[in-house]
Amino acid sequence: MYNILICDDERDIVNALKIYLTNPEYALWEAHTGREALDVMARQEIQLVLMDIMMPELDGISAMVKIRERSNVPVILLTAKGEDSDKILGLNVGADDYITKPFNPVEVAARVRSQLRRYLLLGGGAVKPQTLRIGGIELDDRSKTVSLDGESAVLTPKEYEILKLLMENPEQVFSPKEIYRRVWNDAPCGGENTVAVHIRHLREKLEINPAEPRYLKIVWGQGYKMERGGGQ
After folding, report:
1. Which of 8-17, 32-41, 182-191 has the lowest mean pLDDT?
2. Topology of domain 2-121, per CATH?
């Protein structure tokens, strides 16, 4: 299953593209501003983005630049006929392709398939498992639920995203700044204390003895990691 994000401030266009891309292999997500698109990508693993250029709050070019700061996911710009300069700018700052309005449904489907295929061949599009398990902790990304030794653990959205990041990358150490940047999708100015508080809450919810954690380990002077074995 591949997650595709469609971002356009015109809801009729989003609905039309969802019809064009109806496919059992695609899960379609939508946003209507550049800011909403970034919010979706902060919460969800996306394999391809269809992005309109002219949008409120944050335009498509600016949103794409921010996407490129953290991801090489394919971005296809949705452009009007008279936006040639914007097309060139978009390609120069990291867009992979563009489609001109009004859309040809066959062309849309073909370009999406082509970009997904390229992404997969380059090794960037490996679909991550929907269920992650480390020791007694299980995270189900389909239902957005977490359990510990079979018992449900109630996490806040940010706690969930931090846990997911660490479980997807066991034994990898993430600095507080990197965790903040990835989870909050923002510059990590002063975010270290915020991350520390969330890690403490996660330990209280997932560790038998939060003072001697089995899973959520601190690497002094470097950051945090999820220990695969759940040992002491």
Report:
1. 182-191
2. Rossmann fold (3.40.50)
